[in-house]
Specification:
This protein has about 90 residues and is mainly α. About 50% of the residues lie in helices and about 0% in strands. The chain is built from five helices and no strands. The longest helix is centred in the last third of the chain and has 17 residues. It is globular.
Length: about 90
């Protein structure tokens, strides 16, 4: 499986502008809130602060969600499911 974090976020209707800039902690916090609002399975607990500190954390979380959703397509509907479809041309 291959995942593209920005593409997945955009398919889910989540704005991605500026989240990769190191100083944009608020944008990453808003992005996490938007992910939860879209119904993505999040239970971040103490990891929320760590994820807000870097775009790498957001990217890793997004890729993990894509993998999880792809393994359980029967439990996903709407926009999140679209990011799980295989579009490989191999």
């Amino acid at each position: 499986m291959e995942a593209y974090p920005v593409a997945a976020l955009r398919l889910w209707g989540i704005p991605t502008d500026g989240y990769r800039s190191p100083q944009n902690v608020q944008i990453r916090e808003d992005l996490l809130d938007a992910m939860a609002a879209e119904g993505l399975p999040l239970n971040l607990g103490r990891w929320r602060t760590t994820l807000m500190a870097s775009s790498d954390g957001i990217d890793a979380l997004t890729c993990a969600l894509v993998a999880r959703l792809a393994s359980r397509p029967d439990r996903v509907t709407g926009q999140p499911q679209q990011a799980c479809r295989s579009t490989s041309t191999w």
